[in-house]
Amino acid sequence: MTIDTKLDGRTALITGGSNGLGFAVAQALKEQGAAVAILARNEDQLKTAESQLSTIGSGDVLSVSTDVTDDTAVADALRKVLDWRGRLDIVVNTAAPGLQSAPLADTEESVLSNVLDGKLVGYARVSRAALPHIETGGTGRIINIAGMTAHTLVPGTGVSAIANAGVVALTSYFAAEAAPKGILVNGISPGMTLTQSWRGRHEAMAKAQGKTPDEVRAGMVAGLGIRLGRWAEPAEIAAAAVFLASDLASYVTGQVLHVDGGLGKGVI
């Protein structure tokens, strides 16, 4: 039997799929033959992403305007996906609120609550609603994007760290509950990744500091001690999602892959 990364005939749902890591994951899965449904709140961004994805690979594309903090909206989106393709194989949770760097002690409680609802509870909400509909014949997957702040202390990222640590725990528990159905649940903790959002921040920081964006990035790499000496490209994180979605990962569940270029320094 040949085992590879091809996903022909499978349907993937990606939250936060209109930009950033979500879009990169949608692109990578579609390149492997999957039909992809992208969910996000901004309809204009969704339509742009749908148009771009339609030129890639052979699978179909569907965009659905959805707020993952709303139970009814999530249920409606799932019905649209199931009506569209008649099956659901892969769910990738990437939707998350944007964050600003700040000490945890200076962060308002409402900010923490909003991030937990938008990411951690949002992932749980989507996974819970999707689980009864995910294929149980060996292609079923849930993949959660956490983040290295769950594992490595990065100054100013306390809110992100709390949400990401919750995602790690959520992934483990959903993996245990889904295993009897043959559905695999795993996560990815990306390191510092050059999404468009981060590029914009680097440009603003560079302007304020009288530096170039490359110099700003290099300073952050040195400060964090990233072993590979650079930031990740979104496609490198998406490649891990392709692995977890594919038959290559048929005996992997309850795991969180650290795709961080050596940011994490654990010895066990």
UniProtKB/TrEMBL annotation:
Belongs to the short-chain dehydrogenases/reductases (SDR) family. Pfam families: adh_short_C2 (PF13561). GO terms for molecular function: 3-oxoacyl-[acyl-carrier-protein] reductase (NADPH) activity. The lineage of its organism: Bacteria, Bacillati, Actinomycetota, Actinomycetes, Mycobacteriales. This is 3-oxoacyl-[acyl-carrier-protein] reductase FabG. InterPro entries: NAD(P)-bd_dom_sf, SDR_fam. Keywords: Oxidoreductase. Its EC number is 1.1.1.100.
